[in-house]
Amino acid sequence: MSALLIAGSPSERSRSAALLDAVAQRLSVRGALVDRIHIRDLSPQALLLADFGHPTVVHAIDQVADASVLVVATPVYKAAYSGVLKVFLDLLPQTALKGKTVLPLATGGSPHHMLALDYALRPVLQSLGAKSILPGIYATDAQVTLTPEGSYHVQADIAARLDDAVNVLVTETLRPSPAQATRFAPVPFSQVRCSV
């Protein structure tokens, strides 16, 4: 399984990136190949001018195409996901998420913005053709705290939800399709017995 983690925060260090780091650790333990996109590192001019030919944009779109699973993390600003994430999603082809499973993550200052996952981000992910969008995880500032050393700590309640989400993510991706599940296993010719 290849998982692409998309950091939609304009900040270098953020609570939403801390959630991504926690998911990356859990996926790595499960044997997933993990890759990342920090949208803030892509060319700002290319993003804003929709320069589909810019090398950073081309590479990011290829990363999305190659992944079987996407984890998208964003801070919530003004009851919506970040503008940085919006301009990136706008550059993706209309079927960019076809056949892919997506786990949305978001952080915000208070619980009042948790519906941004369902009312703002989920419809966009759905319009890009995602096969499955798992229930999102929203964390407040009190649930992803800044330590004295300057790093972020994910509280136990959010860590447990991330554990559950990664388990579902792995089982959703590794589960055989309905067509594969109904097929008989191949039988080697040497095991075929015939009676008349």
Please give a handful of descriptors for the protein shown:
single chain; 196 residues; 7-stranded mixed β-sheet; 7 helices; 9 strands; globular
What's the layout of helices and strands?
Layout lengths: L1 E6 L7 H15 L3 E6 L5 H5 L6 H12 L2 E9 L2 E2 L1 H9 L9 E8 L7 H12 L4 E2 L3 E4 L3 E3 L5 E3 L1 H19 L3 H5 L14
Parallel strand pairs: 1-2, 1-3, 3-5, 5-6, 5-7
Antiparallel strand pairs: 3-4, 8-9
Helix pairs in contact: 1-6
GO biological process, one term: alkanesulfonate catabolic process
Keywords: Flavoprotein, FMN, Oxidoreductase
Pfam families: FMN_red
What does this protein look like?
The chain has 196 residues and is an alpha/beta fold. The protein has one domain (1-189): Flavodoxin domain (Rossmann fold, 3-Layer(aba) Sandwich), CATH 3.40.50. It contains 7 helices and 9 strands. It has helices at 15-29, 44-48, 55-66, 83-91, 116-127, 156-174, 178-182; strands at 2-7, 33-38, 69-77, 80-81, 101-108, 132-133, 137-140, 144-146, 152-154. Helix 1 (15-29) crosses helix 6. The protein starts with a strand and ends in a 14-residue tail after the last helix. The relative contact order is 0.16.
Q: Averaged pLDDT, please?
A: 89
In the CATH hierarchy, what is the architecture at level 2?
3-Layer(aba) Sandwich
**Binned strand content:** 15-25%
Class, according to the CATH hierarchy? Alpha Beta
Tally the helices: what do you get?
A: 7
Write down the CATH topology.
Rossmann fold
Low-confidence stretches: none
Q: Could you spell the SSE succession in H and E letters? A: EHEHHEEHEHEEEEHH
Supply the CATH superfamily name. Answer: Flavodoxin domain
Q: Structural class from helices and strands?
A: alpha/beta
The largest sheet is: 7 strands, mixed
What is the count of distinct domains?
A: 1
- As a percent range, the share of helical residues equals 25-40%
Shape: globular
